[in-house]
């Protein structure tokens, strides 16, 4: 079953078609997924950049609050004046309190503003004042490492000691005209309030995934989620040189407007890093891919399902097409089986496919040639059987004829009839050579003796003198030729060549010539008779002698050897007999090999 061409072609068609559709479906799925993923990532990154820009105003308002106080002229005059007193300290602190109050009322993002200075350490601090000794600030864990290298900056989420609230602060150093640090301004924003500016963005409402806010130096100022909820944050952050800060790992630290997939414990996350906003701050967002691309994957699976259904539906169609294409081959195989059984009338129909059309023509031509060849073989077999039958009939009672002829010979000698004895002797010799024990080839020498005996008998029978000359090289006389091939043509010359011709002498000449290069020999019989009628052909011959000789030559030697008869230019008929060269008695295998060759 699997070795049949139709099955192989159909299976190949189906497999190739299925592989092609599967490859197209999978490629379409991958292209669709990658394209959609990139589009989603780019869209999310665009929204993240917009959110970062929105935060720029909030950050600017908070930092401006501290900066406005630090550079205010009244503040500068207060801290430039060295002399203080109880009353003056009270007045200055009221001025500072009012200034802080006014600034705070203008900045709704600000939770509180505190001023830390030792200017009033000799005077009692009031509990409702916003002015504290620097000692309170120095007690915090974050202040010492923070203030080492900066005049102002942001302090990440920490607990406010006075209110015990979680705040994010902007700290600005106060410097007098002598360039001495005389205090610090700390602008506090409640951490929850600050993060609400992140949470209120459209991105957070849709995804609700963690944000990380990076300041100008790339330090993490705020995060919207706890690390326990998203351990992946620990993998992308590292402790900064200043221990109060963390920052992104070096691989992502300098990236802006960037997105990529990261992997943790066989789960993928989309990492988004925004472009710097006006304050050179950046936003970072980490989104689990499973949730983000859930709809995309669903569409991709639907696309693969459509491809699979298309493959299933295409199989019967491809099978029908393959069966239709191979149908002529099946018909040809069926026709070959009929030819094997001897049915040669099988014909293939024409086909619009050129190759099948050529095969059909060749098949029809082959069956026609086989039919003609079979008919020809049947005809040759019939001729062979007829020739053998005639040969058998000629061998009937040979010994009886030999004995009878010998008895006639001796009786004629008893009565002094030498002519009769000689004639009977020639006839007996002709019979012995003609029969030759049933063999088909005899030496040319015996064939010439057979012809000579016939001529001697004819000389005794005919009233006209007969001249018979033989010119055959001695080297040719040992070659083997089919027997009794000369006598029928000599008989025809005597019988028909001089019937209506008034001549004194019948002249018959027999010559022989050898052609080694053509591997053949030629025997020619020429008479001086009346010649052949005009347009004479072998089919006009009425006797069986010439036909018998030609059939035996073709049967034993091949059709390339034959007899040719034509009129001589001077007079009479010329008979040319072309035969192969046999230096020994040819065997049947030798004759078969020659005929096949």
TrEMBL record:
<keyword id="KW-0597">Phosphoprotein</keyword>
<keyword id="KW-0175">Coiled coil</keyword>
<feature type="coiled-coil region">
    <location>
        <begin position="360"/>
        <end position="390"/>
    </location>
</feature>
<dbReference type="InterPro" id="IPR050640">
    <property type="entry name" value="Bact_2-comp_sensor_kinase"/>
</dbReference>
<keyword id="KW-1003">Cell membrane</keyword>
<keyword id="KW-0808">Transferase</keyword>
<feature type="domain" description="HAMP">
    <location>
        <begin position="323"/>
        <end position="375"/>
    </location>
</feature>
<dbReference type="InterPro" id="IPR036890">
    <property type="entry name" value="HATPase_C_sf"/>
</dbReference>
<protein>
    <submittedName>
        <fullName>Histidine kinase</fullName>
    </submittedName>
</protein>
<keyword id="KW-0418">Kinase</keyword>
<dbReference type="Pfam" id="PF06580">
    <property type="entry name" value="His_kinase"/>
</dbReference>
<keyword id="KW-0472">Membrane</keyword>
<dbReference type="Pfam" id="PF00672">
    <property type="entry name" value="HAMP"/>
</dbReference>
<dbReference type="InterPro" id="IPR010559">
    <property type="entry name" value="Sig_transdc_His_kin_internal"/>
</dbReference>
<dbReference type="GO" id="GO:0016301">
    <property type="term" value="F:kinase activity"/>
</dbReference>
<dbReference type="InterPro" id="IPR003660">
    <property type="entry name" value="HAMP_dom"/>
</dbReference>
